[in-house]
Design goal:
Layout (H helix, E strand, L loop, with lengths): L13 H15 L2 H13 L1 H16 L9 H11 L12
Helix pairs in contact: 1-3, 2-3, 2-4
Length: 92
């Protein structure tokens, strides 16, 4: 029973899912935004995955009418990132 679900259809492999995800992101993002997301993926893969899932979810709901620009992607990254905590040390 390899790669088959209960309905008898072949389920996609991880490589196929990654290729479909990459193709969807190519259509959703402008080239500059795609480059920024790839750079973020190298530094913070978990943040890039969260942004990808957010974008794919928005697209599947029909909420994205046009391609995401670099500036729009920056805003999405800022909204998804956890706020940084500032620590103030008082010396006595």
């Amino acid at each position: 029973m390899s790669n088959r679900d209960s309905s008898g259809e072949k389920s996609p492999t991880d490589a196929e899912v990654a290729a479909m995800k990459e193709q969807a992101l190519k259509t959703l993002l402008m080239p500059e935004a795609r480059l920024r997301l790839n750079n973020v993926r190298m530094v913070k893969p978990e943040l890039a995955a969260m942004v990808e899932n957010y974008l794919l979810g928005m697209a599947s709901q029909g909420r994205l009418n046009n391609q995401i620009s670099d500036d729009q992607l920056k805003q999405i990254l800022l909204s998804i990132q956890q706020p940084k905590r500032d620590f103030k040390i008082n010396r006595r």
